[in-house]
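== Item description ==
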Amino acid sequence: MILLANREETEGAWIGFKKGSLEKMPVLNVEELTEIQLKKLAAAYDKIAKKPLQPFPQMATDPVRKEIDSAIENVLNLPDFSILRKLLAQEPVVCLNRL
């Protein structure tokens, strides 16, 4: 979502990113996670890694993306953010539909 929010519109179906914007984006510092959190994330990865993702326009109903989100929510003690996945799926650049 952060990448989409910081994209630069270009001609056609392409988007670009400025280096300055990319450098300022927050990224999870995995070195700050506890060993238990790392083990939980690794276990979730092992369980989910080979499952196919549906295309971006279908992310709102993609069970694998929900599983990924749930694992991250659990490990980082975050609230349910499935509504964000649903809203993001409606964005024109994601669903490939113009408003």
